[in-house]
Amino acid sequence: MVKERINEILEEARKDIESANDLEALQEIRNKYLSKKSELMSLMSALGSASPEERKELGQALNMAKGEIATLLNEKQEILAKKALDEKLKKEEIDITLPGTSYTRGGKNPFHVVTDEITEIFLGMGFKVAEGPEIEQDLYNFELLNIPKDHPARDMQDTFYINENVLLRTHTSPIQAHEMQASNGGPVRIICPGKTYRRDDDDATHSHQFAQIEGLVIDKDINIGHLKATLELFAKKMFGEKREIRLRPSYFPFTEPSVEVDITCANCDGKGCSMCKGTGYIEILGGGMVHPNVLKMNGYDPEVYSGFAFGIGIERVAILRYGIDDIRKFYQNDVRFLHQYRKKA
After folding, report:
1. Phi, psi of 174 (to 5 degrees)
2. How many Å apart are CA 75 and CA 9, to the nearest integer?
3. For helices 23-34 and 2-19, what crossing angle results, to 10°?
4. pTM above 0.70?
5. Which range of residues forms the domain containing residue 284?
């Protein structure tokens, strides 16, 4: 009687599994025939009252039925899972014959264009790039550059101090002091690009943060002619072969003599216009011969070694090249500003 019922349950299970159309229905069938409360499992209790011979026979029949039902369920599950995946992929099918979505290519900030170009020009002259910390000691930012405490030149660089002896660097010149000391009195030829910080009015022409590329050359028999030749080549490479430079006397505490460097105005080719205020020239940088005190404080004998240094404002060069009217636009990350200079850059 029990064995006959096992065969009937097995036959019913075959039909139900065959007719299942989805995974949810198949799970209900699995619960119906293989759960602990299923009829097939309840027949196991009948084995306790059967004789040893019948118990063996019924046990084998029950195990075979359970095994076959489980196998049929697993096979059907694979079929239904593949069917479900195919239907999902069909619904999510992409028509690759349609044109793709176009994206606007971003523009490189002219600040970085100019920085990279200036760097490449000086690398081509044999300079190497040197870097240093933006948080600097007063010793390197001022004192080793011939600007002792209470020197009037400090008033021009009203500074962000962290404590009495640590500050945000006001120029990239501290890198020069580090490099001179690291060279152990040997030749140096470096440029020092980087951000600098000064307490300043945040207006169209000033910013509390700006960037410089400073240069330094130290060796035997260096003179101001080498400085002029270097800067003249830079001006022609940066602004065009027609540009000429002139040197005007100036004052910087770390150079002696010191000069301001002007280039002929690109707007009027040196004839005089409103952009250059009728002079025919526009100031672009400052420089001079390294002061003997700076050489001495950083490990050089000024009777043997000499050198020149210069500093270029990156934003100033970019403003002159691209006609930008507000220094703050370099830092506002406005894509409309960047797109204006994408092709120009």
Report:
1. -55, -30
2. 19
3. 170
4. no
5. 110-340
